[in-house]
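Open question from group meeting: does this chain pack into something compact, or does most of it stay loose? Before anyone orders reagents, we agreed to write out a predicted structure and look at it together. Recording both the input and the output here so the notebook holds the full record.
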Amino acid sequence: MKKSAILLALLLGCFTAVYGQSAAEGKVDQTFLNDFVCRNWTTADGLPGMTITAIMQDQKGYIYVGTYEGLVRFDGVEFVTFSRNIDPKYDFASVRAIFQDTNGNLWVGHNDEGVTCIQPDGTILKYTTENGLPHNSIRAICEDFNNNIWLGTASGLCYLTPEHEVRIPEGLHELGQDTIQVSRLYCDTAGRIWISTAIENDLFVFSTRKLERFTGITKIKNPSVNEVSQDKSGAFWFGVAPHYAVRIKDTEETVFDIGHDHQEGTVVNSILQDTAGNFWFASDCGITILHNGVYTYYDKRNGLADDYINHIFEDHEGNMWIAYNRGGIEKMSQGKFRTIAMPIAVNAICEDPVRGVTWLGADNGLYCYNKDSQFVENKITELCKGARIRHVGMTSDGELLISSYSDISQVCVTSNDKITVWTMKDGLAGLKCRVSIKTTDGKYYVGTTQGLSIIEKDGSIHSLTRKEGFENEFIMSLYEDKKGQVWVGTDGGGIYILKDEQIIKHYNSENGLAGNVIFKTEPIEDSGLWIATGTGISKYNEESDTFANLNSANGLGTDSVFQMICDYTQTVWMTSNKGIFSVNLADMEDVTIGKRKKINAKYYGSSDGLNTGGITSTSVSTQDSLGRVWFTLIDGFAIYDPVKSGKNQIPPKIEIQEYSIDNVKYDYHGEKIILPPSAKRLSIKFTGLSFISSDQMRFCYRLGGFENNYSEWSNLRNVSYTNLKPGTYKFTVMSENGDEIKSKPSDPIIIIKKPYTWQQLWFQILVGVIIVGIATLIVFLKIHSMRRYQIELEKKVEERTHDLKLEKEKSEKLLLNILPSEVAKELTEHPNQTIAKKFPNITVLFTDIVGFTKMSDGMTAEQVVTMLNKMVTLFDERAKREGIEKIKTIGDAYMAATGFTEEPDNDGALRMVHFAIGLMEDVRRFNETSPAKVQIRLGINTGNLVAGVIGKSKFIYDIWGDTVNVASRMESTGEPMKIHVTETTYLQTQDQFAYSEGIEVEVKGKGKMKTYFL
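Structure tokens returned:
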């Protein structure tokens, strides 16, 4: 590393020596300034005063400006002034010197108010003669290697130690300089302090704790030094009155005369070596730049606002800043464009590799621009003087074609300068020639406002007009493709394609073209053919013979595009009524295939070096052999060089400037922002520090805890939030410069919104505990009360339930006595439901006491009922034991049934026959104790029937059907103490019981039936 540094220093030293020798010869190059874009700010732009006493850039990137009206901070867009008139905490009015030390403290020297130290946290310290300063008029400030702050005043020199003690350097008294008048202070790379006074022979240097007079300048007698600096090689440069710069490297001393020829000046105020190695000298007669061994002068004659320059410096991005004595401030930036102004509109540009010049067709003739950036005259320019040149172009064999709206309609100049002129007299379709080309077969195609003319190799001319198929005869553009086809663009009629001088195709908006006014047809390598129209641009797809179109809806920013040029960086440059803009080629192709919806078009203006009033729709720009793009302008032309005009790769630095809470403003110094509970609105002001195209800066921001995503990009530098909920938030912001280089997110700002007491967690917990406690007490009391009531209620319920249970048991028992158990259950659960069901195989029994009527006539009612009750009870008990359903009793008759199931195959018949046998046994037992001896008849039948409950009160479970009727007939036709069954019953029980032979019985309603006796 050390060897490299030494080698670099030696090379720089050698170059500087050469520069000095060359410059001494008086070589001047004023074109150096053409690569810069200048921007001047005055009081009209927000500066508080026109006299700039000091200018610098701080560690954050702000530009600070000293004026007699206060200290000014500039971020590229806004000037902010600090003085007691603006804010009482800044107890000063004027500023004479500005300096920032290694700790970030900003030192501000005043004209007659001492020095102010503004610390990074916003704390302000003030030092005056009351603190020991020799004088209150501070002229210069610097810092040494021990972090002492040196202050040069109008009458004395001192320094402030890190402990804030004021000390006077040794040696002043011995040299008789107790009241030294300091103009500049400079700390060199060895830590020495240089003190210049602008007085003859009074240049001093402080080293090894002693002040000494410097006598190293020998080639100028009695030197009056106002400025001291060092270059990158370590050589010292001294600004010596009236207009000299002296360079001293070791023992070598070189003198440069930097005076301007119109005014020699009296003082050199600033010397700077920029990052490119050029030397800038500022004086009271303008700026002199020493570069590549030659001088460039910048003064009022070529645009300087004021010849008196107080200071000049280079910022972090390479911009040069000029502090004027009476003209405000100026920034000189390397422009993307180099604009050459002309008093006339330029319509076409063409590079001529044969002659090594560039031709410019203008409204008043043809201009020839050589490699030395000079306009030169020749016989071709003489021929075209006064003519309105619409197009110039070079053929593949080195011929120059010139088309004009004049008597020399079409001109061809061969490589050996033979000139041929064609007009209407020679057969051209019109006097006004708009464009011309030479095809690969050696023919000339000339587009006029009245048709297309073709000049054959033998010189004969024939034209194609409406008669030959052109709907529009105004020819705007011509292009020959690889197939030898000529694409002819018209002013409203679309594009015609010619092959062998015949129209073979016609494209317009009806078959997919973006528009019918065709400005240019441009082939782009590896991309295809693009067409610029008055309503967008079209890309031609040869395979499908279709067009894909782009316009303002796709992000172009305009619908009317005059021309497209693709440079070697795959950037497509376009011209339009809105000016010059560029688009990434890949993005354009993505839109044509539907991969994306929009492109990002970047427009250029004065901040990019493009100083013009606009572009004409008929103009023809070009790309030269070096890859530079030459643009025609209505007031000259501009050159874009991708090599010199690369992107500003330095991302802008985000700075939070201030915030306001309910319109009360606070400077931001990195602290947490605490919002009181009552705060309704928080506003945050920020900026992006970049001074190249500052007006094109964009921002996006996010408040973490409030929003999940960053906002859309915009040029807004202020954001507000209202009614934030209590909590902690983090605010971050990002910026993007004009070349779309994005910054990293800023350091997050911690924002804490304080809650009201009732919003705090402890308060809410306490309230919650109290509420829970009260609720618990209420519930406890309520539970206690309810418990007592419940005990009483339970007792009543228990008593009532017991009563109900008894009643229910009685009811159920009564129901069970009346109804089958299944029917009783269903009736209990569904009291309002109709209960009826059809059963397939039920056995029904009927009994009757033989001669009961006659028997009862001799008995009392009580005896009858007692007898019947005793006998029926025996029947009921048996039915219950054997699972037989008693249906009802009617007088002395008893009806029972069994087989109440939906299954047809059941044992109901067997059980019923067994039950019948038991009934006869019950009658025999009854007769053993009864005074009245009885006999019964029994009839049984088996079959299907319907069973159900009839009535809502005094209901009865009954059965219906032919099976019941037949069973009744079996009883009435039977014999006493015998069981009479039908054949159906017989068939289901014959295997278990012995029956008599079948007999036929006449049954009412059925006729003769075969029946059996058990």
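Observations to bring back to the group:
The radius of gyration is 59 Å.
Residues 1-25 have pLDDT under 50 and may be disordered.
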